[in-house]
Amino acid sequence: xxxxxxxxxxxxxxxxxxxxxxxxxxxxxxxxxxxxxxxxxxxxxxxxxxxxxxxxxxxxxxxxxxxxxxxxxxxxxxxxxxxxxxxxxxxxxxxxxxxxxxxxxxxxxxxxxxxxxxxxxxxxxxxxxxxxxxxxxxxxxxxxxxxxxxxxxxxxxxxxxxxxxxxxxxxxxxxxxxxxxxxxxxxxxxxxxxxxxxxxxxxxxxxxxxxxxxxxxxxxxxxxxxxxxxxxxxxxxxxxxxxxxxxxxxxxxxxxxxxxxxxxxxxxxxxxxxxxxxxxxxxxxxxxxxxxxxxxxxxxxxxxxxxxxxxxxxxxxxxxxxxxxxxxxxxxxxxxxxxxxxxxxxxxxxxxxxxxxx
Length: 358
Prior knowledge:
This protein is α/β, with parallel strands linked by helices. It has eight helices and 20 strands.
């Protein structure tokens, strides 16, 4: 089984993680909610009741669900899942938050725990003793996603609370590097990216995950790309606003696909050379299976289901979401079969879907 911080291989984890098809046969109660979703809902509104503590001190204490030892998660965890897929050897989910279930022993596990600590959007991962090797961990970002299979693709780390802990990725290409969604701005990360050639474009998949886009744009003098339907006051000065339904191209190797639903202007990025689709919040892989995160939909769930259907027959076998696990499908036919079953099940669940399966 491939480590979750690299990718979930659907052809090899069926005995450990329910396959998407199996999950569709037994959808969770959350997945069965109707379409009456508030358009004003916000993932950022989700927080632990502990945040309301009068002093604010208790929330920074270690949760009792952590095992004894140096690393721990405090009560400010927002259950974004980042640490659990970055360092699954150390972190797990207990009581709707993350916790340390095993202290890192090897140097590799310790590095992954420190990378998760640096990437935690709420700084909820802490240590009893200041880590002497934290600077070395900082130098590792951006981290290669898979040096052998996906050369030139990096995970930036430093997830931002402004985007509820969404992941940001960097694609290195001769035509100009692309930063996908905005990580938390840190000068150290910016200088590390500079050493990889900087950033030509900052592609924003949708309005929820723009985070520190302004700071990144100013540092790299890069062009930001966002669909016009998702432009708000904070993104009014975006350089490149996508209009209409697309698709759009950034050279021969990049296709941008309009996938409205989660938001009106959600767009996926297809990196053709490595058959990778970056989906933002349009379609994600959670700990329990594929999801369109209906409870956080800000536009139209039926339209989002229809947009998932758009992904059928596109030539990709890697799915890189903004939240949750990366997926490596065995091949395109397997991808299509899983997505077709997922869409069919959603249409069956929601009889009000606009376009019935044909």
